[in-house]
Amino acid sequence: MNRTNGWLIAASMISALAVTTTASATTGYFSLGYGAKSMGLAGAIVSNPQDAMAASVNPAGMGMVGERVDAGIEFFNPGDRSARLETSAFGATYDVEDKSRRNLFFVPSLGYTSKINDKLTWGISMYGNGGMNTTYDRNIYNEAAAVLGANGQGQQAASMIPGVTPEQIQAAGKAAASMVPEGTGASDFAPIQDVNTLGVDLAQGIIAPTLSFKVHEKHMIGASLLIGIQRFSAYGLGNFQCFTKSVATNPANAATCPNGYAAEPSNGLTNNGHDWAYGAGVRVGWIGEVLPKLSLGAAVASKVYMTEFDDYDELFAEDGKFDIPANFTVGLTYKPTTALSLSFDFQRIYYEGVNSISNAGPVFVPGVGPSIPPGGGLLGTDDGLGFGWEDINVYRIAADYRYNNEWNFRAGYSYNDQPIPDDQVLFNILAPATPKVHATVGFTYRPSNKSEWNFSYMHAFEEKVSSSQTAFGMPGEIKMRQNAVDLSYSYLF
After folding, report:
1. Contact (CB, 8 A) for 473 and 486
2. Model-level pTM greater than 0.90?
3. What is the three-class DSSP state of 45?
4. Cα–Cα distances in Å, from 119 out to 65, 216, 287, 299?
5. Which structural domains are found in the chain, ordered by start?
6. Residue 251 CB coordination number (10 Å)
7. Residue 181, SS3 per DSSP
């Protein structure tokens, strides 16, 4: 077997592994960097490619890193992902809050480059583009709905205890002396389905076959085909059944939906296991040395147009569409000495170009509770409820110092806008992508001129998004911090 076929097989195998592994949010939900070298520079590589993962940012860079293979794994810890709805504002003696469990994820990466001739290089980069995972043992929505329901029925929310459900409130009635689980007769009332463990699981993988062409001794261009693979599941969203198009338009639900449950619930909202989507887009880029010590780089990626999540066609807008947003990056690298490189990158991510991400979530209407906002639509429609994310800018600075032939040291810093507006806290309990500031360090050790070991560490500082009035009418808050360690091995042909 020749080396090209061998690495193609390896790429296919690791690609399959990547999309069975869940990453989590950094710059929105995109990863900060792809591979240990990139992560050590906080992702600032658009004009300073490091290895065969270069196509994840700028395909032109694949022709500047030599013939090589880079294989790595990221150990990602999203840390304290937590959410709180302040039910005490509605008379309860407690707030409904929980921390998401499952706090360690493994994200593999693989890159390969090979020269076709002196000017043309081909390669492939495989990486986890990003994702989101939350798993709350307490169903924050359901418990908060119980307090909201008690308040609406004139009951004493102060006598409730954590864990009470809307069915128990309904069963207790206005004459209830204590809102406790036992003895309320809740079985006499139709239950809200799918309101146990709450969370989502989104993983995105990209396979990027790439061509890079030397148009001039100091200028490279490149293009990648972006093959997208997504896996998604959601659970515990039964409280929003009445916001789906099939439930809201079904006459059988007319009497039950005002009470919070659906007589004939949707089968495209929640608890349908994992579903898969596939798609494609393109990325093009350029790198050029414009002065003896100064290089510029630029790359732009189209939206990756994905197939629909058929099993969640009444959760995401446009019948289950969840495209990967378009983005572009520009940057410069200045080399004051042969050993030191200083880089600055600017990136813009167009989350507002994807309806399922950017459509506004529910709003609070007094006396009614969560409601569809003006101009919005039912879940699953083109204007259906979403997460309300906004486009963001990302700013990165980094330094790469070659100490000697064996050691390189790296450090980086990144700042991004907050994608989640304060008034969109409720739905983003599922996707608390709050971090804005990241700091990274890393190094490379070369035991020989054919091999490298690479390491990086990333810390995303804790950031909160809070609202004085969520769509449940009560204050709420989400927050997250992150840590990640990247390890990779590189072999140079």
Report:
1. no
2. yes
3. coil
4. 13, 9, 14, 20
5. 3-81+98-131+202-232+281-492 (2.40.160.60)
6. 8
7. coil
